[in-house]
Amino acid sequence: MIESQEITLAARVFEAYYLNDRLKEDQWTITSSILFAATTVIPVGYGFVTPISKVGRFIVIIYALIGAPLVLVTISDIGKFIITGLCFLGFLIIYLFTGALLFSLFARITYLEATYFSITSVFTIGYGDTEPPVPVPYLILYIIIGVILVTIAVEVLAAEIINHIHYMGRHVSKARKITRKFYKMARAMDVRRGFNSGLMQIESFIRFGLIFGMMKTDSNDEQNVLTPCNINSTFEPTNGDIKFADDDVSDRPLHVDRERRQSKWREDY
């Protein structure tokens, strides 16, 4: 009774027990406190030590609501800072399995158990069914580096996919604009020859543009910067519908109208 009264309120705020060989032992030490604070805001949450009092749980709620977003934003910023120059996905896989190998060598666990612990820790799953096989400072450092690599890998893959989607959308819009411009140019050069001649000129413009790099744009540039396009072909304009001086031009509407006007003028005079 006297011993229970000597336990202060501050000591019971974060009171936690861990069942080890059927004996309840107080696990709230300095190292376990650091591990608890780090895995709460990262967040992994192994569950080896947990608050059991109402005050302790309330403090954890406030701490997690403030700390977890700040830590995740900081980790994301660190990932963006070092986002170039590494193959992050491959490096992440190497990091996971190398860490598992070191865990299995320096701790008395199998490689499968070490791999399981490594993946559940770095991907912030943290079931809490496997005891940390290394000292707490090394474990926290391993988790922080792993979470940074996961954030970078996910961001790189997502950015690449989004970039391809936007690239396809931009070029569909560019193709429509280029087609309209070529059509207007062809119609403006000689409206009197009709629509068939305009289509012929459009085809010629397109071939000319492909040879000199006018139809290929840089995918990394938003301002339609033209880049060279090497095509091993000669420029052969489609001239099957063009009427030359030695051809029969009686089928041209302009020629027919002129002949009619001359015939009418002869009849009048």
From TrEMBL:
Extract the Pfam families matched here. Ion_trans_2 (PF07885)
Q: What is its main location?
A: membrane
In terms of superkingdom, the source organism counts as: Eukaryota
InterPro entries listed in its UniProt record: 2pore_dom_K_chnl, K_chnl_dom
- Where does it reside? Membrane
Q: How would you describe this protein's topology in the membrane?
A: Multi-pass membrane protein
Name all Potassium channel domain ranges: 17-82, 91-160
Quick check: keyword Magnesium in the entry? no
UniProt keywords, alphabetically: Ion channel, Ion transport, Membrane, Transmembrane, Transmembrane helix, Transport
Record's Gene Ontology CC terms?
plasma membrane
A GO molecular function annotation here is: potassium ion leak channel activity
Set out the biological process GO terms recorded for this chain's protein.
stabilization of membrane potential
Please give the start and end residues of each transmembrane region.
Answer: 28-48, 55-75, 81-103, 110-127, 139-162
Please state which protein family the record places this protein in. Belongs to the two pore domain potassium channel (TC 1.A.1.8) family.
Q: What is this protein called?
A: Ion_trans_2 domain-containing protein
Instruction: Supply the source organism for this entry.
Output: Brugia pahangi (Filarial nematode worm)
Lineage runs: Eukaryota, Metazoa, Ecdysozoa, Nematoda, Chromadorea
